[in-house]
User: Which sequence fits this backbone?
């Protein structure tokens, strides 16, 4: 969370409705030193002791805050959920089933719902395939265009431990680089049912960088970084397509 306590109630409610119990599921809010609102109060009200809360001693930015999330996580499957997004009923059950069905996958994600600042549905992400399962040629497809919003994806803990966390050179597009890095090393599972909502508004991290134009600079940098993950014969072509997109 960072300055999004107005949405946090909906976010936490969506998670707690699918709570599998503290023996199975850790739920914790990591706040990047918010000063404009009080996320701790929301956690105390809704969590009733079930939800942990940790506030950074100073603002670190998105990659640094994500890194703290990874370091504090104790489970074998890690879901990073922005404080202004939410998950739909069945999300955690479907994601767990994916990892149980195909233990070799590094991550699993679902189709995404795009909502506005007031929670109105604005559309859905493209349907990658009609059936649940491992995606074909996913590295090349993902490297051409960002196709995974953070709330929709669950990553195996050992994948982060092996590949490292989010690249702190990227204040924006850090998620795209991470997902491409994972796809370069592991199969990825796709769930076609839309079970995660991504909120688009001008006060989000992405929205702030779109207003300044910095999102394009970091996007180009992310493409340059993950070009090295691609097969040599197609790396230049895919990178050029990504920049055009």
Assistant:
């Amino acid at each position: 969370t960072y300055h999004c306590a107005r949405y946090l109630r909906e976010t936490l409610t969506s998670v707690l409705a699918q709570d599998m119990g503290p023996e199975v599921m850790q739920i914790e809010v990591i706040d990047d030193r918010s000063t404009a609102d009080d996320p701790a109060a929301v956690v105390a009200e809704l969590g009733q002791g079930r939800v942990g809360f940790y506030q950074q001693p100073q603002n670190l930015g998105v990659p640094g805050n994500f890194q703290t999330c990874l370091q504090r996580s104790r489970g074998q499957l890690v879901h990073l959920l922005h404080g202004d997004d939410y998950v739909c009923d069945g999300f955690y059950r479907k994601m767990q089933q994916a990892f149980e069905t195909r233990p070799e996958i590094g991550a699993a994600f679902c189709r995404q719902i795009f909502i506005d600042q007031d929670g109105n549905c604005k559309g859905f992400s493209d349907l990658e395939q009609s059936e649940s399962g491992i995606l074909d040629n996913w590295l090349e497809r993902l490297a051409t265009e960002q196709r995974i919003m953070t709330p929709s994806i669950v990553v195996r803990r050992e994948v982060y431990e092996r590949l490292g966390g989010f690249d702190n050179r990227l204040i924006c597009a850090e998620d795209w680089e991470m997902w491409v890095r994972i796809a370069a090393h592991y199969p990825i599972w796709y769930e076609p049912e839309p079970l995660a909502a991504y909120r688009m508004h001008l006060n989000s991290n992405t929205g702030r960088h779109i207003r300044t134009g910095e999102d394009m600079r970091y996007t180009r940098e992310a493409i340059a970084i993950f070009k090295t993950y691609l097969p040599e014969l197609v790396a230049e072509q895919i990178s050029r397509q990504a920049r055009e997109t």
Q: What stands out?
A: The longest strand covers residues 188-199. The chain has a mean pLDDT of 94. The radius of gyration is 17 Å. The longest helix spans residues 214-226.
